[in-house]
Amino acid sequence: MYCLFVSHCVLAQCVMAEGRVKTHPSMVEPVVRFCLENSVNIMQMPCPETRHAGLERQPRGKGWYEAHGLRSSAAAIAEGQAEYMGQLVASGSTILGVAAIEFSPACAVHYLNRGSRIVPGTGIYIEELRRALLEHDLDVPIVGISPRWPAKAKKDLTALLPAVVS
Ligand code: SF4
């Protein structure tokens, strides 16, 4: 069985910070479509920002969340998810990867926002998830998804498949 771990808002855009739902009112379609078309189980990870700052929160940058303690709660979530992945692998499932949302101070994989600019950077949760995966000896690719870049999302997710099929 294939499994893809996804940022919580991939399946529930309503948890995003105020004003951040831009392209999809409910789910991030390229990710859901990929899973449906390839019989992939969708494993929804908890939302670090919501757990830490609640549902009704203003958009904040990585520096603000770093200074306000997100790292420790993100580390706890990451540890739980890595442990869960280990259990799934032990029970015979294949973890295809993690699909996380770019520009989030928690979930970004390659890109963050700085004002109106896009800058290279990784979110706090993904940093902690990488650390937890290493500690659990799990080699799981992490793909950065932006709802604004559906073609890239499809290409990057599809690239996860041949590695386990061949
Ligand atoms: S912290 Fe992650 S899961 Fe939560 S809204 Fe931001 S990108 Fe989505």
Q: What is the β-strand count?
A: 6
Residue ranges: pLDDT <50 for 5 or more in a row? none
Supply Rg. 15 Å
Mean of pLDDT: 93
Number of helices in the DSSP assignment: 8
Q: How would you summarize what this structure contains?
A:
By secondary structure, the chain is an alpha/beta fold. It has one domain (2-161).
List the helices and strands and how they pair.
Layout: E1 2-6, H1 8-11, H2 29-37, E2 40-44, H3 48-53, H4 62-67, H5 70-90, E3 94-101, E4 111-114, E5 117-120, H6 124-135, E6 142-145, H7 150-158, H8 162-165
Parallel strand pairs: 1-2, 1-3, 3-6
Antiparallel strand pairs: 4-5
The structure holds iron/sulfur cluster (SF4).
Description:
This protein is of the alpha/beta class and 166 residues long. The protein has one domain. It has eight helices and six strands. It has helices at 8-11, 29-37, 48-53, 62-67, 70-90, 124-135, 150-158, 162-165; strands spanning 2-6, 40-44, 94-101, 111-114, 117-120, 142-145. The strands form two sheets. A four-stranded parallel beta sheet has the order 2-1-3-6, with helices on both faces. Helix 2 (29-37) runs parallel beside helix 7 and helix 5 (70-90) crosses helix 6 (124-135). The two termini are 15 Å apart. The mean pLDDT is 93. Iron/sulfur cluster (SF4) binds next to helix 1 and helix 3.
